[in-house]
From TrEMBL:
InterPro entries: FAD/NAD-bd_sf, Flavin_mOase, Flavin_mOase-like, FMO-like. It comes from Fusarium langsethiae. Gene3D superfamilies: FAD/NAD(P)-binding domain. This is Dimethylaniline monooxygenase. The chain crosses the membrane at residues 423-442. Keywords: FAD, Flavoprotein, Membrane, Monooxygenase, NADP, Oxidoreductase, Transmembrane, Transmembrane helix. Belongs to the FMO family. It comes from the Eukaryota. GO terms for molecular function: flavin adenine dinucleotide binding; N,N-dimethylaniline monooxygenase activity; NADP binding.
Length: 450
């Protein structure tokens, strides 16, 4: 089998790696794979479309590949430059270079008469060539083509730049007035660069409000209203791995999953935790702007098909997922989600060589985030090194929760409360399904009698 991979960003590299190593996990013939990259180095958007002081918005604990981790001394959030170096180290370690063709843009792909594909590409020498294959993996990314809205009158502004064209502070003229359109991560970063430059005025514009949240969650303090102070020497934990309760998103029965209960409960729980830890229910996440007062009024109707929310038509990316739940669902579909007893079993077996792992793995299963390494404990891509990564580097996300109180607030409270509610709702849903089935049977019997 021959497979073409288009794009040498993170997605393309990991796709190439697993296609190249497919024979390690499946009883198949080796796959002849080739990766085409238009730029002269690997890294994708992180190589060509980043700017001064750019930093990843997800922590190294979630961002890095399961079997190639960042250095322990690396900061929690890698810079764009460090991440590019990390991707090159990944390419070196798994010997992916022989299959990579740099400075080789794909110009078109078409099907052949046999059902395969013909990839048309232009080599570094400028000569157009073709490569026939059975399948194509498109890993060209979402951020190559910039989204430039049509703003009336913007042509009269002296300097107009899209964020993909911006590189460093020096591009802001001294004493200039800067308007930043958009309040996503990039908009915030560029606004910060503008404010810390010798500009006269910086205006950050948003359309419908925006959420401002820190990358790291402040360590919880037990009743600060009583005068308790934070430990200045304690390390704060990245917010994307600060807490995880499996029952909140992974194991809910459909009756509970498809309703607003979990969101309302999380709201109450988070406000309670905020009050305990900071003395205010406002917390660290602050919504700037306002939410429409008219919301949540349309419930599902039995006479119409299930509806799905859609983003505005002018969006460049017209879909969205909750990444942690999505990763869990993908792992579930391929039988790669370890059960609690898998954690106990694997931890117990590893504990013979590495004392402490026998209890760390079950605790990490209960309280840790959905790390990709979790999904390599069992399943088709099972990897022996996953145990060491989970019990070593990723165990740090548990120990940095500032003691028993931090772990209690971030894990035990939501798991206990949502777990109890989930069990009750599971029985309610089961009872409702049973009544519905009895009703359908009774109705069918009635009509047959008539």
């Amino acid at each position: 089998m021959r497979v073409a991979v288009v794009g040498a960003g993170p997605g393309g590299l990991v796709t190439l790696k697993y296609l190249k190593e497919a024979t390690k996990f499946f009883d198949i013939d080796p796959i002849d794979v080739r990766l085409f990259e238009r730029e002269d180095e690997v890294g994708g958007t992180f190589t060509k479309r980043t700017y001064e002081d750019a930093e990843l918005v997800s922590s190294k604990y979630l961002t890095c590949f399961s079997d190639w981790r960042a250095d322990l001394e690396d900061p929690d959030f890698l810079s764009a430059k460090r991440f590019i170096r990390y991707l090159k180290e990944y390419t070196d370690h798994f010997n992916l270079w022989p299959e990579i063709s740099l400075s080789t843009p794909v110009t078109s792909i078409r099907r052949d008469q046999a059902g395969g594909h013909i990839v048309h590409y232009r080599g570094p020498d400028g000569i157009d060539k073709t490569w026939e294959c059975d399948a194509v993996a498109i890993c060209s990314g979402l951020h190559v083509t910039p989204n430039i809205p049509d703003v009336p009158g913007i042509d009269k502004v002296k300097i107009v730049k899209h964020s993909s064209q911006f590189k460093k502070r020096e591009e802001f003229p001294q004493g200039s007035q800067v308007v930043v359109l958009g309040t996503g991560e990039t908009g915030m970063d560029i606004a910060h660069l503008a404010v810390t430059s010798p500009t006269k005025r910086v205006v950050l514009c948003h359309r419908q409000g925006f959420l401002g949240a820190p990358k790291k969650i402040p360590n919880p303090i037990l009743f600060p209203i009583l005068g308790n102070k934070p430990n200045p020497n304690a390390q704060e934990l990245p917010i994307d791995v600060s807490w995880q309760a499996p029952l909140l998103d992974s194991y809910l029965p459909p009756f509970l999953r498809d309703r607003l209960f979990t969101w309302r409960f999380q709201d109450i729980n988070i406000k309670l935790a905020n009050w305990l830890c900071s003395g205010t229910t406002a917390g660290v996440d602050q919504w700037i702007g306002g939410l429409d007062a008219d919301r949540f009024h349309t419930s599902q109707m039995s006479l119409i098909e299930e509806y799905h929310f859609k983003l505005h038509g002018h969006k460049r990316i017209d879909y969205g997922v909750h990444h942690e739940s999505y990763a869990y669902q993908l792992a579930l579909d391929m039988d790669a989600v370890p059960s609690f007893w898998d954690g106990v079993r694997v931890g117990w077996n590893a504990g013979a060589k590495h004392p402490g792992l026998w209890w760390r793995l079950p605790v990490l299963w209960l309280t840790g985030a959905q790390f990709n390494t979790k999904f390599r404990v069992v399943g088709p891509y099972q990897w022996d090194g996953a145990v060491d990564v989970l019990g070593g580097e990723l165990w740090e996300t548990i120990t940095r929760r500032e003691g028993l109180f931090g772990a209690f607030i971030m894990t035990v409270v939501p798991m206990t409360m949502v777990g109890t509610s989930s069990i009750i709702m599971w029985f309610v849903g089961l009872f409702a399904a049973l009544l519905s089935a009895i009703g359908r049977i009774a109705k069918g019997t009635f009509w047959r009698v008539v």
